[in-house]
Specification:
Elements: E1 5-10, H1 14-25, E2 30-36, H2 39-49, E3 53-56, H3 65-74, E4 81-86, H4 91-100, E5 104-107, H5 112-123, E6 128-129, H6 131-145, H7 160-170, H8 175-182, H9 186-200, H10 205-214
Helix pairs in contact: 2-3, 3-4, 6-10, 7-9, 7-10, 8-9
Keywords: DNA-binding, Phosphoprotein, Transcription, Transcription regulation
Protein name: Response regulator transcription factor
Pfam families: GerE, Response_reg
C-alpha cells in the first residue's frame, strides 16, 4: 500500500486553510494531518505530527512563517520540507524563504494542480518556485554573484549528460519533464541532479539555476 504524503497547513486565515486542505485532500496520495494559525503553532504542530511537507504562509501572528520555517528546518527530528504559500510576489520574501530553508515558494493565485504538484515534489526532495518570481530571483542572484572577471564556462567538470540535465533544470523543467526530454527514467535524472549538485557544491536546484546562468549553461 502506498504511503500518503503527510501535510501540515499553516495560515492565519481559517477559510484559506479549509480551501487548501480541500484541494490537497482530494488527491489520493496526500493527507492533511494538522493545521496552525500562527508560526508558533506551526512549529508545535510539526513537532506533534511529523509531516512530510508544511505549506507555510508568510505573515502570521506571534511568529511569522519565515522564522517558523527556520525553526522547523533546524529541528533534526522534523524531516519536513517547507513550501511557502503566500499572496506576496516579493523578491525579498522569496530570497529570505530560501535562506530559511524552504524548498518551494508558491503564490496563492496558483492553480490547484500547481499546489498539489508542489507538495508532491517537495515530498520527493525536489523544489519549486512560482514562475512569476523565478526570473526575478535568478536575475538578482546572478547580479550579486557575478565575478568581476568572466568565469570559465565550467568551473567544475561535468559529464555531457550532467551538462544537459543542468541546462534543462535551468529552464525550469522538473525531473519527469527532463526524463521525457532525454528519454531516460526519472530515477536516472534524479541521480544526475544529485551528482551535479554534489560536484558543484550546490545546495539545491535554485542554486543550480543560478550556476547555469553564470556559466553559460542556460538557454
Amino acid at each position: 500500500m502506498t504511503t500518503s504524503v503527510r501535510v501540515v497547513l499553516a495560515d492565519d486565515q481559517a477559510l484559506l486553510r479549509a480551501g487548501i486542505g480541500t484541494i490537497l485532500s482530494a488527491h489520493p496520495g496526500i493527507e492533511v494531518v494538522g493545521e496552525a494559525g500562527t508560526g508558533a503553532e506551526a512549529v508545535d504542530v510539526v513537532r506533534a505530527t511529523r509531516p512530510d511537507v508544511v505549506c507555510m504562509d508568510v505573515q502570521m501572528p506571534d511568529m511569522d512563517g519565515l522564522e517558523a520555517t527556520r525553526r522547523i528546518v533546524a529541528d533534526p527530528a522534523a524531516h519536513a520540507a517547507v513550501v511557502v504559500l503566500t499572496t506576496f510576489n516579493r523578491e525579498d520574501y522569496l530570497l529570505e524563504a530560501l535562506q530559511a530553508g524552504a524548498v518551494g515558494y508558491l503564490l496563492k493565485t496558483s492553480r490547484p494542480e500547481q499546489l498539489t504538484d508542489a507538495v508532491l515534489r517537495a515530498a520527493a526532495g525536489e523544489g519549486l518556485l512560482a514562475p512569476e518570481v523565478t526570473r526575478a530571483v535568478i536575475a538578482r542572484a546572478v547580479r550579486e554573484r557575478t565575478p568581476t572577471h568572466p568565469a570559465p564556462r565550467h568551473a567544475v567538470p561535468l559529464t555531457e549528460r550532467e551538462q544537459e540535465v543542468l541546462t534543462l533544470v535551468a529552464r525550469g523543467l522538473n525531473n519527469d519533464e527532463i526524463a521525457a526530454e532525454l528519454v531516460v527514467s526519472r530515477a536516472t535524472v534524479k541521480t544526475h541532479v544529485s551528482n551535479l549538485l554534489a560536484k558543484l557544491g550546490l545546495r539545491d536546484r535554485v542554486q543550480a539555476v543560478v550556476y547555469a546562468h553564470e556559466h553559460g549553461l542556460a538557454s
